[in-house]
Design brief:
Blueprint lengths: L3 E6 L16 H17 L4 E6 L25 E5 L10 H7 L4 E7 L1 H14 L3 E10 L3 E2 L5 E2 L1 H12 L5 E2 L2 H5 L9
Parallel strand pairs: 1-2, 1-4, 2-3, 4-5, 5-8
Antiparallel strand pairs: 6-7
């Protein structure tokens, strides 16, 4: 039995309908994420898919966009729906992890500095070890209120800086899947 679980946070079509959406980084993101998902499945690591939901707009269930972002293929062990930035707030995820003896989380998803980072901090503060897989996260450039533009690279670097050795181990897909406590299917 694995004591590790993969979190796939907010990898949903809803984002394509937001004004900041940019296709530029999607192909490398989906390729790395798919490698992570496939590797977790091969190792029989639970894959937990989290969707963000809202009352209206592209994140509402009625929109039809609260579904896996194409071209990602995933057969999750369990689904969770959240309304906050942390996937651990009022979703049942924390209880699921405890009931299944999960001690370490591998975090992936959309957006790097928002729901992925927030969930990582919350998980660490709640006692889980966390591997934050930046290359399997996606975000978008942002403009500071003072007019400075922050690139995707800037945002990911900042997230890695504030998480490293405080809340998470920053890991590549290969490093997250090669951790010593992961089972390998035979």
């Amino acid at each position: 039995m694995s004591h590790v679980a993969l979190l796939v946070i907010d990898v949903q079509e809803s984002f394509r309908h937001r004004p900041f959406w940019n296709d530029a980084d999607v192909p490398p993101f989906t390729e790395r994420l798919q490698t992570l998902i496939d590797g977790a499945a091969a190792r029989k690591i639970p894959i937990l898919q989290v969707f963000h939901v809202a009352e209206s707009g592209p994140f509402s269930r009625a929109s039809g966009h609260v579904r896996t972002l194409e071209p990602v293929v995933i057969a999750p062990t369990a689904f969770f729906h959240k309304r906050r930035h942390s996937a651990l707030v009022d979703t049942g995820l924390s209880d699921w992890l405890t009931q299944h003896g999960i001690r370490r989380l591998i975090v992936s998803g959309i957006r790097t500095e928002q729901c992925c980072e927030t969930t990582t901090r919350h998980a660490s503060d709640s006692g889980w070890e966390v591997d934050f897989v930046s290359e399997a996260t996606l975000t978008f450039a942002m403009t500071h209120p003072d007019g400075r533009r922050f690139s995707v690279h800037d945002i990911k670097a900042r997230t890695e800086l504030v998480l490293t050795d405080r809340f998470a181990r920053i890991a590549t897909v290969a490093q997250a899947l090669a951790a010593r406590d992961l089972p390998v299917a035979t």
